[in-house]
Design goal:
The protein contains 17 helices and 11 strands. With about 450 residues, the protein is an alpha/beta fold. The strands form 2 sheets. Strands 1-2-4-3-7-8-9-10-11 form a 9-stranded mixed sheet, sandwiched between helices. A two-stranded antiparallel sheet has the order 5-6. α7 links the parallel β7 and β8. α5 packs across α7. The longest helix has 25 residues.
Length: about 450
């Protein structure tokens, strides 16, 4: 099946993102294949013997340019010059935010974040996660382990932080409303330019995107030096000890075991051609939330694209068995308990905000208390975070809390990113928030 897949095909969002999400640009970013296999050859992208195709894959990346301020007036010219935000200062690019989606979802999940973040002055970069489009689908199974996925996303991070996104009209050419992928190289070159020094990036990840945000920010990783701070949604860092402390989570996570079966999960997910499994997961995980029809249609299209559903399931098949092995091994070694074990965990090297909806039907919010700190634990140092870590629980939110309570989530995320500047250090002197310090709060609205 993999040898007939056309790896030149992008996600449908390459054509639909402008109308659906209001993004400005679409790029096809080359990333290195984490597990190339020789001899699979043609049909995967264009090299004569398949070697180049095996080494490089294409990831669709959606970009919303930071909303530019109005042309400076006499009273604002001085301020613009002081802050370096004037158009004349080409080296001063806006800060960056990278948005990473999870399952069962696609990049449209951030429809309520893209414009607000751009309005707040950020260039917003939203990749289609590996496996969620034909160009990265049906790779060898080991390509969907978290370390392999992180390797591909590191290429996206490197590209984003060293690229300046330029509107066509800023180069004296007419701005075009069509946001379809441009085949002509001159059009792509008109939209971006490389920077020598680069800039740092903030990361917001949901579900699997959260797990990858932690990994990209791990101390010693290739990308940690490029990341200023992160915020995560729905999934805590190193949750395995929390599973043992709260065994009810095993019931909530039934789908992780179910997806280890061959064929049946895919059939169930698309049952009757109406995506009954997809709808059930959304109902169970965010009770009472109704996904807008346009976004639901986007999900149906995403999971109908060649190879995508199987590849999305591979995230679970590649990562859950090793997690369960660690869980059993950790239990035997006796690290279960309510204080948040650290076995098998790695240290996150940037300031981290963990957000969870109190009504999350997928991951119980109490897991954040165990894995990343508790109300009673404020002020102590967490061994798996070398910088500040904070947990916020959002009232009335489920697993897709960023869609259900976007105003609250956006305010918390932007405040966190503002608090820690380009270097990941606090911009202002505030009480608490030192290295590794846990600051847990309830975000009741």
């Amino acid at each position: 099946m993999g040898h007939t897949l056309d790896r030149s095909l992008p996600s449908h969002l390459a054509a639909d993102a402008h109308s659906l999400l209001g993004t400005d640009f679409v790029f096809r970013v080359p990333v290195r294949h984490p597990h190339p296999r020789s001899g699979r050859g043609r049909g995967q992208g264009g090299g004569e013997n398949g070697k180049d195709d095996e080494e490089k894959l294409l990831v669709t990346v959606l970009v919303k340019k930071a909303v530019r301020p109005q042309p400076p007036t006499t009273t604002t010219t001085a301020a613009a010059a002081k802050t370096g935000r004037g158009k004349e200062n080409e080296e001063d690019d806006p800060p960056l935010i990278l948005l990473l989606h999870g399952f069962p979802d696609d990049a449209s999940t951030f429809h309520a974040q893209i414009l607000p973040f751009a309005t707040a002055g950020f260039d917003v970069v939203v990749p289609v996660m590996p496996g969620y489009e034909p160009s990265t689908a049906l790779l060898p199974p080991e390509s969907y382990t978290l370390p392999s996925l992180a390797l591909m996303l590191e290429n996206v991070v490197e590209w984003a932080v060293t690229t300046s996104f330029v509107h066509a009209d800023e180069d004296g050419e007419e701005e075009k409303g069509n946001n379809a992928v441009k085949e002509e190289k001159e059009n792509e070159q008109r939209k971006c330019k490389l920077r020598k020094g680069g800039r740092k990036i903030r990361v917001l990840g949901h579900d699997w995107g959260a797990a990858l945000a932690y990994l990209l920010s791990a101390e010693g990783s290739t990308s940690v030096g490029r990341i200023a701070s992160i915020a995560t949604l729905a999934v805590p860092h190193n949750p395995l000890p929390a599973f043992l402390a709260h065994p009810g989570q095993f019931v909530r996570s039934w789908y992780m075991i179910f997806m280890q079966l061959p064929f049946l999960p895919e059939y169930w997910f698309r049952l009757g051609g109406r995506f009954a499994g997809l709808h059930k997961l959304w109902r169970d995980w965010s009770p009472g939330y109704v996904l807008p029809p346009s976004l639901l249609a986007s999900l149906h299209t995403t999971f109908s694209e060649p190879g995508v559903l199987v590849s999305a399931m591979q995230y679970y098949r590649a990562n859950v068995p090793p997690m369960l092995q660690r869980l059993v091994r950790g239990k035997v070694e006796g690290w279960a308990g309510g204080e948040g074990g650290t076995e098998g965990g790695f240290v996150v090297g940037v300031p981290t905000l963990g957000l969870v909806g109190k009504e999350d039907g997928c991951i119980a919010s109490v897991l954040f208390d165990v894995a990343m700190g508790s109300v009673e634990g404020g002020g102590r140092h967490h061994p798996l975070f070398s910088k500040a870590v904070q947990v916020a629980k959002v009232e009335g939110g489920g697993h897709f809390v960023h869609q259900e309570r976007p105003k609250e989530v956006n305010a918390l995320v932007l405040a966190w990113f503002e608090r820690f500047g380009e270097n990941g250090t606090e911009e202002k002197s505030r009480k608490g928030g030192g290295e590794g310090e846990i600051l847990t709060e309830n975000a009741d609205r």
